Amino acid sequence: MRLMARMSHVIVIIPALNAAPSLPDTFASLEPAIACGLVSRWVLADGGSGDATVKLARARGFDVVKSLPGRGVQLAAGAARAIEGAGEGDWLLFLHADTRLEPGWAKAVKAFMAAHAGGEVAGYFQFALDDESAPARRLERFVAWRCAAFGLPYGDQGLLVPARFYERLGGYRLMRLFEDVDVVRRIGRRRLKPVPARAITSAARFRSEGYLRRSAANLLLLARYFLGADPEKLARVYSRRRS
Fold it and tell me: How many Å apart are CA 181 and CA 205, to the nearest integer?
């Protein structure tokens, strides 16, 4: 009698810090994938929130991991917890707390996982903003070009990666900025593939700072990073800009 192969599952990891306003929408976008059995667990790595972030996550059944603040630190902590219970063939899905996946994403992810089962491949979603303005559309087109030309998706596009491949890569490094760029560069352009579904991110910071100003400032920081600047110093610059 032939045994039925074990179904691969997805474990969702979300880093969060005072993210209570955006989490309900993010959680709601994930729930259909739990109902259909695709998502087996979800982990929230909290960086010391002072609002209702942890309460909301626990109410939705999240495994909450306490961590020092810093997205790379939190992602690494969340992944370590997720891998503890990961089965052979399971995948990790890293998602920002202010990003929601569009309806139908679970079907796209299932197809992606089936097409790349057993391979060293990672997926990312199409970048989209919750803003109907012309500057938002221009930024979305620029991000699509950046991904196609350079294989450089950012963390707000999510990252879907086999758990065992993630371990072989060495995981996220303990960086407060550009941890997403660092990990996709180690994955490599040839092993990065688009998932045909959108990851919709809040445009609040672009609206408050201005699309052109924020985009230019981010590109300047990225250029400094590629030229060898200390990511910790760049993170302090980024934090001052947001305060």
Answer: 20
